[in-house]
């Protein structure tokens, strides 16, 4: 019995270490690659630790290319998308969760069906429409599509969240003569702050990570978002891929994401499993 | 009654902005794609619009080997990666369900691959697959799996597998967390009763865990299938669709954005978009149906 117990513990420890290494190693490898000078980077016997670490790749990312502009583009686009989606999504979510309205199921079905749209199926038409509106190479040309693709999950999660809030506070406010909108802004939104933060973070990550639309609708390097800039990262010549700089850029934009995700992990998991498992 | 009418008006105003954006950005373009798929034209004004009926669809299936290859690649990618993600995800979920020290920290770390943008993780892996000094190449060389300097991403036998590896890396931990949520809902008493009845580990797994998890797994599986069928980023960044890795979405973008400016390819590309939409709709309907089953 006790040998069986020891064997179980050993197997479990090995499995856990394996899972951890599997999840973290690529990120770790990007970090140490970004700290290696070129000689070490292209060494035929790569080491798991930089022998003479240097920050030159981090400096060059901003000196030799407009990476700070790309970061700014992503911050603006993902930030405005998040705020807009939260506002639209919480209005729609509240109406569906709480208000009397015919055709609720149809509205919800319409909104949710968008989450299953393959982006490629609307890419061409959307490009033509945005071009007609003069929105190619503009922030709004990317924010609008992002609001549309993030609204379904946001509305769904917030709708679930509002449903779970205690109803009597709102009813008391209504009896005191508080209007629907005032109730919403002064009571419902403050009470749902944790839900709004978690949903906002999910929206932000989705908008920050999106590639296909950004790659198609932003056609000038000064408008590239981070994923596009990283995907099209090029050296001075066709034959030289600056891997050290590329890994530095990857680490710069990944670290804040990783920290945010680690802080909000519980809320993200529950939000997403509610979104995926419940619909 | 009057108050109720007023409430309905407020409610419609509250859902209006969301419905408006979704209609303009998703439903209208989808309708337009469908309409365009019956015409032959390009994005360059030199190619005027010409109605051709179902010709684009027939051409795709009958005269376009590149489409057939992309269809095969997409199905291969979807089947292999979703299968691997489900099996590994279930295995990892069971591991992190066991009590051990730092369990919370391990579960948190599992979100890292999911949080990193695909464009960035693809580049990280592309570096690890580098034929001269990539760490994965070096390890496989050391293990004798490949010859020194073998271009994993440049060879038709291995490139798709490398792409699948990246997708599995990114998605499996997250799938595991979803399955874990389902695992935690299984009452412990069931296992205790089974233990008293003398059921061994394998019997408890197949008779309790799997049946109780089936709806969670089904939903996760279909959800991942929808995602895998439209895969674009990882394929585009790792290989640009070369060496027999082109998927439907990658080929579709070539038609809509590259060829449509130099020839009458936009309608043809729209037809492919419709096919991808139809393919995904089938799985979406299965998804919705399986949800209803769960709700009953």
Topology:
The complex is a heterodimer of chains A (279) and B (296).
Chain A: H1 2-34, H2 38-41, H3 56-63, H4 67-98, H5 104-113, H6 119-132, H7 140-164, H8 167-175, H9 180-191, H10 193-209, H11 212-217, H12 226-231, H13 243-263, H14 265-277
Helix pairs in contact in A: 1-13, 3-13, 4-7, 4-10, 5-7, 7-10, 8-9, 10-14
Chain B: H1 2-36, E1 39-40, E2 50-51, H2 55-63, H3 65-97, H4 103-109, H5 112-115, H6 118-128, H7 135-142, H8 159-183, H9 188-196, H10 201-229, H11 233-239, H12 248-258, H13 266-295
Antiparallel strand pairs in B: 1-2
Helix pairs in contact in B: 1-13, 3-8, 3-10, 6-11, 8-10, 8-11, 10-13, 12-13
**First-last Cα distance of chain B:** 33 Å
Proportion of strand residues of chain A: under 5%
Topology of chain A as a string of helices (H) and strands (E): HHHHHHHHHHHHHH
Q: How far is it from the N-terminal to the C-terminal residue of chain A, by CA?
A: 44 Å
How can the largest sheet of chain B be summarized? 2 strands, antiparallel
Helical content class of chain A: over 70%
Q: What is the SS-derived class of chain A?
A: mainly alpha
Low-confidence stretches of chain A: none
């Amino acid at each position: 019995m006790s040998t069986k117990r020891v064997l179980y513990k050993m197997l479990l420890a090995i499995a856990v270490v394996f899972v951890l290494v599997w999840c973290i190693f690529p990120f770790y490898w990007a970090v140490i690659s970004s700290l290696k000078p070129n000689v070490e980077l292209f060494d035929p016997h790569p080491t798991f630790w930089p022998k003479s670490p240097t920050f030159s790749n981090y400096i060059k990312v901003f000196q030799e290319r407009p990476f700070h502009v790309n970061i700014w583009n992503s911050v603006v686009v993902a930030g405005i998308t998040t705020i807009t989606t939260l506002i639209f999504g919480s209005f729609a979510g509240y109406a569906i969760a709480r208000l009397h309205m015919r055709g609720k199921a149809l509205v919800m079905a319409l909104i949710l069906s968008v989450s299953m749209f393959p982006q490629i199926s609307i890419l061409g038409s959307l490009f033509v429409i945005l071009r007609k509106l003069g929105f190619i190479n503009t922030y709004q040309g990317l924010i609008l599509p992002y609001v549309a693709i993030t609204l379904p999950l946001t509305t769904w999660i917030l709708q679930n969240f509002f449903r779970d809030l205690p109803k009597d506070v709102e009813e008391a406010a209504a009896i005191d003569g508080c209007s629907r909108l005032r109730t919403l802004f002064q009571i419902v939104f403050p009470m749902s702050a944790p839900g709004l933060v978690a949903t906002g973070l999910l929206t932000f990550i989705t908008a920050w990570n999106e590639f296909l639309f950004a790659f198609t609708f932003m056609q000038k390097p000064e408008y590239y978002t981070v994923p596009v800039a990283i995907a099209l990262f090029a050296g001075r010549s066709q034959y030289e891929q600056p891997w050290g700089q590329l890994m530095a850029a990857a680490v710069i934009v990944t670290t804040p994401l990783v920290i945010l995700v680690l802080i909000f992990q519980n809320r993200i998991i529950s939000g997403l499993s509610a979104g995926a498992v419940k619909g | 009654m009057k108050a109720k009418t007023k409430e309905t008006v407020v409610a419609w105003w509250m859902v209006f902005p969301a419905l408006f954006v979704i209609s303009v950005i998703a439903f209208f373009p989808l309708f337009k794609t469908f309409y365009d798929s019956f015409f032959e034209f390009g994005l360059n004004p030199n190619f005027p619009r010409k109605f051709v009926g179902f010709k684009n669809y027939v051409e795709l299936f009958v005269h376009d080997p590149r489409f057939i290859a992309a269809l095969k690649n997409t199905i291969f990618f979807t089947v292999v990666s979703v299968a691997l993600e489900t099996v590994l995800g279930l295995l990892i979920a069971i591991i992190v369900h066991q009590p051990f020290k730092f369990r919370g920290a391990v579960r948190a770390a599992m979100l890292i691959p999911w949080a990193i943008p695909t464009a960035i993780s693809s580049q990280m892996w592309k570096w690890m697959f580098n034929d001269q000094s990539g760490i994965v190449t070096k390890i496989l060389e050391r293990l004798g799996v490949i010859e020194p300097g073998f271009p994993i991403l440049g060879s038709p036998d291995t490139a798709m597998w490398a792409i699948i590896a990246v997708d599995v890396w990114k998605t499996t931990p997250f799938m595991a967390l979803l399955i874990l949520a389902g695992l935690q809902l299984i009452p412990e008493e069931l296992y205790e009763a089974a233990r008293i009845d003398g059921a061994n580990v394998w019997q408890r797994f197949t008779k309790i865990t799997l049946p109780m998890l089936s709806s969670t797994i089904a939903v996760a599986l279909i959800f991942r299938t929808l995602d895998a069928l439209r895969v674009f980023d990882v394929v585009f960044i790792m290989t640009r669709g070369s060496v027999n890795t082109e998927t439907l979405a990658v080929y579709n973008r070539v038609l809509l954005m590259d060829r449509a400016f130099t020839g009458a390819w936009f309608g043809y590309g729209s037809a492919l978009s419709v096919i991808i939409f139809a393919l995904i709709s089938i799985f979406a309907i299965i998804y919705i149906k399986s949800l209803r089953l769960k709700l009953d």
